[in-house]
Amino acid sequence: MVSLDLSVVNVGLPEIASGLGFGEAGLTWVIHAYALTFGGLLLLGGKIADRYGHKRILMIGLPVFGLACLLGGFAQEPGQLVAARAAQGVGAATLAPAALALLTRTFPTGKARVKAFGVWSAMNAAGGALGVLIGGLLTEYAGWEWVMFINVPMVAVALALAWRGIAPDEPVERRGRPDVLGAVLATAGMSLLVFGVVRTDEYAWTSAVTLSVLAAAVVLLAAFLYVEKTTTRDPLIRLGLFTNRSVAGANSYNLLLGAAMASAFYFVSLYLQGVLGAGPALAGVQFLPFALGVVVGSVAAIKLGYKYPARSLLIGGGLLTAAGFTWFGMISADGSFAVDVLGPSIVTSIGFGFCLAPVVSTATVGVAPHETGTASGMLNSTRQLGAALGLASLSTVAHQRAGENADPAAIADGYGLGMTVGAVLLVGAVLIALTVLPRTSTAAPAPVEADRGLVPEGD
What we know:
The protein is an all-alpha fold and 459 residues long. The chain contains 17 helices and no strands. α6 (111-141) packs antiparallel against α13 (288-305), α6 packs across α15 (337-362) and α13 packs parallel to α15.
């Protein structure tokens, strides 16, 4: 649901604009409102989950998310939909770190951990890719409202499964008073950073507005780091986490991976509709091979993860994904889906699937149980921030290459350049895996007995 809602509304934006009377500038807030609250509150959401219990916070975040979706579907004016999307982001920022922390606690090591993170990653990536397909079909045949309503039954099912399938939280050891100042500084800084980046579609990177917002974000985040280093309270993030090479390397890798992949969805969707002339539903269907490729890559990562270290999978997956982006960089105005999209989609998606589970699993290696929510929130934050930075930066590169009032050939050339730069980012991620991540003997060490966090089912 969380990843689905990052992409499901994209194809339906024209219908949303005509249905609710959005202006061109205001329409972008249907996307930005969700990205802003989701990205800005993830660190806080992870800390709250650690402090008050992962299952408890998951059971709170799910209904918040579902209610926001329901209200968004019934929106009658632009402000109501934007507010609902912001509330969705609040729900997602609480449930996403809690869910990943529960997975980490339930499968602390061994082959079961490799398999669990592979399944989780396949669901996560498929949600993002299928969001385009689902959004296109629902918009064309049911109405834009259903891109919001679709989440309501999924929330109900998730609540029922979580209530029955996840064991109650163990008593949480409180480690001093909450670091309220740090929470305020981190949330404000992250929100301003995401806000400044996503608004570059309206205000250029060199404009006074963008530079002022980004400068304020840097000041707030610097103040947050100082507070975390000196506070006598329970810090929002223990800075010692960053001395863990697995945590630091996985988050750096994740930042670049998120930057590249967000631009891929954006450029390919625009190329299919704006250059090749596909309608919303057809463009959604043409994303299906990408979604299936991610699942194939994730399943392959499970099999390979039993024999090879996560570091090796991240290197191989990053190189394969970079090769797919390089292929995408050759798109042209007189191309076709079969030649310019299908082939590179398969290569890119399988490589992306290779990366997902290892980067998530690596980001929580060596992390204490009481900090798994924080580590999970941090990983989600780097991906969200990477997506915002990558999309804003690469779309600027593509627009500058294409120029104003560009013809289809120039537009395709701009998209191609954006994808080529994405390939460079992925090579950077591979270098991080090579130089920062520690070498490990296998990705699946022998299982150890631990609290598995789930209600036994007679297995």
